[in-house]
Amino acid sequence: MMRIEFLKHNETPGILITPELSKGSVLVAHGYGGCKEEIIGLSLKIAVLGFTVYTMDLQGHGENTSPLSFGVVHEISDCVEFCRQFGKVTVIGHSLGGRLALTSAADFAVGISPALADEYDQKTHSVLKSKRQFRVREINPDILFELVRDLPVFHPNSKSFILFAAKDIPEIFDECKKLQSDIRAVEIQNASHSDIYLLEKTFSLVSGQMLDWYS
Length: 215
Description:
Layout: E1 2-9, E2 12-19, E3 25-29, H1 40-48, E4 52-56, H2 72-83, E5 89-94, H3 96-102, E6 108-112, H4 122-131, H5 143-150, E7 160-167, H6 170-178, E8 184-192, H7 200-214
Parallel strand pairs: 3-4, 3-5, 5-6, 6-7, 7-8
Antiparallel strand pairs: 1-2, 2-4
């Protein structure tokens, strides 16, 4: 049996999934223009393995009424500390959430198509602004690109795992591909940036890595 609760930790709305016996805890963060409900399928797959999972709405997204700003870094840190009451913490994030996951103070981190590049070309700017920005409340219309430029740099390590899509955003694909010689970074075939977190292959790889870390 699992218990599912909609709650708000400080100002961050989320969904807490608690199994009867917990191996540890997981914080799940969506990407730019997403929300907790969009990525809850991945959260449920992890919870079934026996982990307590908190799936959050990042600033400016879903039910989170705070506009997206550099405060999102503190928000991630605050939610990591909330999760520590349930054991060692893994942060799993997609896109912007992936960058925040990999640069967090969690014990382990999974970046799914993480936004590791500092700069993005005009085509990427246009696509994100036309297809995702309308779903986000922001302190200014360029905050996403200011964030990815100024967020902490990710340093590859053995406690991090990256998955990226064969049809990913070009800048994300290139940055993740470079890391394959330094870290476990897996390219998912027949996947795009917008669906990689919905695929069974992703669920399987993330689940396997989680069980390995917590064994």
